[in-house]
Amino acid sequence: MRTSPSVVIVSIALLISACGADVVAYRKAEPAPAPEAAVDARQEIAQAVGRAAGAHLEQGGAPGVQVAVRVAGAYHAGAYGHRDHKRSESARIDDVYRIGSVTKTFTAVVILSLVQEGRLSLDDCIGRWIDLPNAYDVTVRRLLNHTSGIPNYSERTLPSLGTILRPRYLWRPDQLTALVRRQGLLFEPGTRHSYSNTNYVALGIIAEAVTDRGIDELYRERIIEPAGLRDTFFLPYEQGPDPDRLVVGYERDLLPFATQPITPHNLSWLTYGYAAGAMVSSAPDLARFVDALFEGILLEPPALAAMTRFIAAPHPRIPAQTGYGFGLRRLEMDGTVLLGHTGTIPGFGAIVMHAPGADCTIAAVGNLSRLDSLGLMKAILTELGRTNTWQAR
Fold it and tell me: Which of 11, 58, 303, 351 has a CA-to-CA distance to 156 between 20 and 30 Å?
């Protein structure tokens, strides 16, 4: 889904130069480095992230951002800026944000777990479960890598306007696919790549049909619990965290006047995203998730290999993108290959990327529409590249 001069830099307790400490180390290093080396690495990473986040906020970014970084065995997570547009309440490390299309990576993992169990095949025709024109010409594989040719329902103006005007309206998944039912395919399946939220709504419908379980249960049993995620929820389909932990987002693009707050009570945008964009999470949880994925905790090697088989997929709004796999973007930034996903949903932006060649994972979330998540990611990589910790990987 789509997506301040005063900066509160949150760092580790040992970093005495930081202004305000509220961080978590989200993984234990194995093997553990020497205590002094571990402290030095965490300090370097915390300082690098603080510089990147501070510059991002000063340049007119979100009111606040939350960032989690792992470089080899060193970890840092911090909250920067503010929770609110008036900048009266500091951002917190236990805040939970909407993450938009990063949800797609979760959905792809669920589908691939069903494939490895033999309950689904990548070459199954989706007409068994989805009522769309030409559905029998489209396979599960084509949904996963956006080569189905099915139009994107979220690009339609009237449904989006209706979602703005009815913030508590709850969309059903079949209503979302019905928005493009009268449209033909954009191209012959498999001949092109065209990003479409409809693909991942369809995958959620298929997962529920195959298992006779809610997709929220599948996320929890197959990802959230095995990966040890504490702040990740599929709202409003399951009970979420304490409402006070859900950050208010700020939307500045949908309407031509003022900035619109997207409060936790605004559920319509979440149901408009469903399996393509309804997750909420935190930066530390997103980093845990992606590390668990690439460490082989969530999928067996053949399924992970399929997930990371990228097709050429240039994107006009994401110049760094060179490929798309199954729920994964492949980016290249200054010679570093990154695998993960971006997310935008009204009021929020998110990004999580793993750099396999650098043994590094970075996640960031913020509470502003069209967050410049790629710019923030590049700034973090630039600052990390100047550290001894990065050079010593």
Answer: 351
